[in-house]
Amino acid sequence: MQALTFGLLAETSAQLEDLTDLVKRSGHDIALSIKASSGCLDKVRNVDAWVVRLDLQHDKSEHLMEILESFDVPVIYDDIESYNELGVIERVTRFSSKIQLCAGTSAPQGLSKPREIWVLAASTGGPEAVGRFLKHIPEHMDGVAFLYVQHINPEITRTLQKALLRNTCWAVLECERSQTMVEKCIYLVSPAHQIDLYETRVIAPIPDRWAGKYQPSADQVMAKVARRFGKNSGAIIFSGMGNDGSSSCHYMKGCGGLIWAQSPSSCAVDSMPVSALGTGAVSYLGSPEQLARQFAERRHPKAACM
User: Fold this and answer.
1) What's the rounded mean pLDDT across residues 20-33?
2) For 5-102, CATH number?
3) Lateral strand order in the sheet of 194-197
4) Contacts of 126 (CB under 8 A, 6+ apart)
5) Residues 6+ apart with CB under 8 A from 70
């Protein structure tokens, strides 16, 4: 992982020295080292993330945390009391694992973080339908990333990835490490473990298993996307057996997101789209090709689908 540049904020000089040692041992750089005081964050340079040690019982600390959260970069709170029993090496190891969530908080050169995050949810018949949809998404469309939630066995995830690459010029990536989402990418949500999402557009695997019978769970992914990204979120329910996705339709719509669905007549199995339609939250219905054209027209009225 490329070295990140951190800002440090703590109550005392001794705490700042301790944080400095921790960050440097983890292989990262320090741009700012600031003692907590009123106005101390009024003029600061951009950093990749902050490491903070504050007494959160004080009103001053609460105000400083609010300012830090407004910077739209990750904030790591370092609680020294939780490290009392740990040696230096173990403490650095734990801290480094937190830093993984900050990995790549800046998008790779030439690409931008997506403004919109859309969930593509499917089960039986999904790979064929989603492939048709992606084939008609313009290569040049910017500002969007897809999270593809396909009910699938873990051992054939790589096969699904290869199949998708035959239908799109976009990157198709697995979610097996913490990474910043970038535009023109399709992220395959693993059936083996859940994911977490951050407002900074970082997506990270977490060890929890999916709750319920669907793996991965469209309902859970849609709820996380809606909660984090609100009006910049959306979901398309494709062919599939069961009702996964329908429970989160109202929630996503209430957060400002859009819900579309594949027309039942064009599905190999129509249970998932029919369940979504039954919620009354679906605002557009069409074949995979029609969904792609509508998607391109909604974002770029003059764009012509391939």
Assistant:
1) 86
2) 3.40.50
3) 179-180, 202-206, 194-197
4) 150, 151, 238, 239, 240
5) none
